[in-house]
Design goal:
The complex is a heterodimer. Chain A is an all-beta fold. Helix content of chain A is 0%, strand content 44%. Chain A has strands spanning 9-13, 18-23, 33-38, 45-50, 55-56, 61-64, 70-75, 84-90, 104-109. In chain A, the strands form 2 sheets. Chain A has a 5-stranded mixed sheet with strand order 1-9-8-3-4, with no helix packed on it. Helix content of chain B is 0%, strand content 58%. Chain B is built from no helices and 11 strands. In chain B, the strands form 2 sheets. In chain B, strands 2, 4, 5, 6, 9, 10 and 11 form a 7-stranded mixed sheet that branches. A 4-stranded antiparallel sheet of chain B has the order 1-3-8-7, with no helix packed on it. Classes of the chains: A mainly beta, B mainly beta. The A-B interface holds A 32, 34, 41-46, 49, 87, 91, 93, 95-103 and B 32, 34, 36, 42-46, 49, 51, 59, 88, 90, 92, 94, 96, 98-107, 109.
Chain lengths: 110, 113
Amino acid sequence: DAKTTQPPSMDCAEGRAANLPCNHSTISGNEYVYWYRQIHSQGPQYIIHGLKNNETNEMASLIITEDRKSSTLILPHATLRDTAVYYCIVRSNAGNMLTFGGGTRLMVKP
Amino acid sequence: SQTIHQWPATLVQPVGSPLSLECTVEGTSNPNLYWYRQAAGRGLQLLFYSVGIGQISSEVPQNLSASRPQDRQFILSSKKLLLSDSGFYLCAWSLGLSYNEQFFGPGTRLTVL
């Protein structure tokens, strides 16, 4: 599986945009980038995924660099409820499994 | 709509006791099913996955086992729990295509004393 690298923690002020980076320099051409988040003591929640084009949904935007070696998840207006661990994952092309790394612990502060 | 259930929500068991955690999915047919474990302060580790009834693949050798007796039922078991089995256990499902997202249940927090 391609591995991902994320900063272990980040802070963001409430109402501001949260930009969470992820490096995946060994990603293969047919592998997607997925983002999940996990609020304390709950199961992970799917946020967004993409291949090479930028994607946007009601939760977030995903910006993938042209060389696909890194991406950024953007929460446009962070709220206190966005405090969670955010996982950047590259989907294994050997099956349906997701490989979770350590993630980024985002703390949204008032 | 699809829903995924796990029970119990929390469990405290002594070392050496057996374990049975159950996961059921509603609203879909022939899902792929997964068991993950999350140790305190760490990321998720895939334990088992299943693409159909009676089909189990193990990702990590350990004293746990999984079974899928019905299409939408996935069970995680152990004959004798170890202290290191403590953690947060999550069941997930996905459709059969390779790039579909996985949907997670609420989890079971297991403490082995």
